[in-house]
Design goal:
By secondary structure, the chain is an alpha/beta fold. About 30% of the residues lie in helices and about 20% in strands. The chain is built from 13 helices and 17 strands. Strands 3, 4, 5, 6, 7, 8, 9, 10, 11 and 12 form a ten-stranded mixed β-sheet that branches. Strands 14-13-15-16-17 form a five-stranded parallel β-sheet, with helices on both faces. Helix 6 packs across helix 8. The radius of gyration is 26 Å and the shape is globular.
Length: about 500
């Protein structure tokens, strides 16, 4: 599942994390709210001065959010404060120096240039400055960094291995500083800890930021991974081969001293499942998708060849050519947020004219097979959840229908709806009515759980999870939902006719 955070913007350009405060109780935090008095001018001016001082100091005094609260990213203008600044303060790093950019709320990134050497046993990376080598090994600078892209989540970041970056004066001829492996290309250090294991976080917190950070090196880069997982490397090897020409390094497991001339520690991240072209020299999320296409295409062609040999057919279903009927893929869930009348949905979609496939992604599912199904589809349907990340596998111009359960409207739009539009998909958000939720069978119609989900979400993350994520299933009103399917069918057939006319 997606882990949400919320931020309060005090003034333009200054955003701080804050715990949730009920607006009705806000007065208890401000002097004078509970008293009715008529202060004299002097006292009034004093009060205004104190209040102004509080507002100025607020960014330094407000606490970091506790992990148990339901915190959401802001939308609109506030979202800008969560993206990387258009100006990279470390855009130019001179030889023998280190620069750390800690201006982003999402991530810290440090840059080192010169004689760089790893020391995995102490979780350190050294930069040796030889300009004043006669001064001995005097430590010039020390920085600590946890190279993971959820900086604002204190509880999550506490689980991420911390690196110590040290700049020293030294004579590189000293035997203690010898290199076991010399690299003539830069290194990018990052962690695969945190929420790795959840497909949304694997793409949003890891793979897309890795692409953003490394694409400028044109594959001439080595990835140094903290909290290295063999299964993760295997799962995404198809993508890795198109981001780097070199084998990744297990920082903790490889005790050798690796030497580099340039290193980036940490990953840049722009927004939810997207790439900001203004920060990448024109690269967009579609360029990342092209990497996926290149990565999975050889395996898909191999699967097609296997099917040909096993069936004797020259044109098995699933080849590059589209079937005569438009293809609709339903991403199926078990347990929470499952579609209770999924079989009826399949029958209805088939009657409309779709060729329907029901796909049930598992943690062990081969991504090339999922990519093949969705890349050849015209429409994808799924209920809000991590599996919606697979919209990245669809071709621009396809239709993505996200079923939005009660209490998930904001998250569904922010984490999947808006990013899908940036990819070029036709996005349709189907917000269910209370009667379409399994919660309707448990609560009275006027209960806030059904009538006012926002008020429940405002009570904290544990309430969102308890009511809307873990216990809710969906029973679609097929008469109402059919309108979206018919609209999608017409759109798909119209697009096909345009392609035929243009040929």
């Amino acid at each position: 599942m997606v882990h949400y955070q919320r931020y309060i913007q005090l003034r333009k350009g200054v955003t701080v994390a804050a715990t949730y405060v009920d607006e009705e109780d806000a007065c208890v935090h401000l002097s004078g709210c509970n008293k009715k008095s008529k202060p004299k001018l002097l006292f009034f001016l004093l009060f205004c001065t104190l209040l102004s001082s509080c507002l100025i100091l607020a960014p330094h005094l407000l606490p970091f959010p506790t992990p148990t609260l339901s915190l959401l990213y802001p939308s609109g203008e506030q979202q800008d404060s969560l993206s990387d600044s258009n100006t990279n303060i470390c855009s130019s790093v001179s030889n023998g120096t280190m620069c750390c950019d800690r201006t982003s709320i999402r991530t810290d990134v440090c840059y080192m240039k010169g004689d760089i050497r790893t020391h995995s046993s102490s979780f350190s990376v050294f930069l040796y400055n030889t300009k004043n080598s006669g001064a001995g090994e005097e430590q010039l600078r020390r920085e600590k960094i946890r190279p993971y892209t959820r900086k604002w989540e204190a509880s999550t970041m506490a689980t991420i291995d911390e690196l110590t970056l040290i700049v020293k004066n030294s004579n590189t001829s000293t035997i203690d500083h010898k290199c076991d492996v010399n690299h003539d290309v830069p290194a990018v250090f990052f962690s695969t800890g945190g929420y790795t294991g959840n497909v949304y976080h694997e793409f949003n917190d890891g793979l897309i930021p890795l692409y953003i950070t490394s694409q400028k090196y044109n594959k001439k880069v080595v990835f140094v991974i903290l909290e290295y997982h063999d299964w993760w490397i295997t799962k995404y090897s198809n993508i890795f081969t198109h981001l780097s020409d070199y084998e990744p390094i297990d920082f903790s497991g490889d005790k050798r001293t690796h030497c580099f001339l340039e290193s980036v520690i940490g990953l840049r991240i722009h927004d939810e499942l997207t790439v900001d072209s203004s920060l990448t020299g024109g690269k967009t999320i579609n360029d990342f998708r092209d990497i996926l296409d290149k990565g999975y295409r050889p395996r898909i062609e191999g699967l097609i060849q296997e099917e040909r040999e096993n069936s004797g057919s020259r044109n098995p279903i699933g080849m590059v050519g589209r079937p005569e009927k438009p293809k609709l893929v339903i991403i199926s869930r078990n347990g929470s947020r499952a579609i209770m009348n999924e079989n009826a949905l399949v029958k209805m979609a088939s009657k409309i004219g779709f060729l329907v496939t029901v796909l049930k992604p598992e943690r062990t599912s081969e991504l090339a097979k999922i990519y093949r199904e969705l890349n050849s589809s015209d429409v994808m349907i799924g209920v809000h959840g991590a599996a919606m990340t697979h919209f990245l596998f669809m071709k621009p111009g396809s239709v993505f229908i996200q079923v939005v359960p009660l209490g998930t409207n904001w998250a569904a739009k922010t984490y999947y709806g808006e990013p899908a539009k940036k990819l070029g998909l036709r996005y349709i958000g189907y917000e269910i009515l209370p009667r379409e939720s399994s919660l309707y069978d448990e609560y009275e119609s006027n209960d806030p759980v059904l009538r006012d989900p926002n008020s429940v979400n405002d009570r904290g993350w544990e309430f969102t999870k308890k009511f809307y994520l873990d216990r809710q299933k969906v029973r679609l009103n097929l008469v109402r939902f059919r309108k979206r399917l018919v609209r999608s069918y017409i759109h798909t057939m119209s697009k096909r006719n345009e392609m035929v006319r243009s040929q």
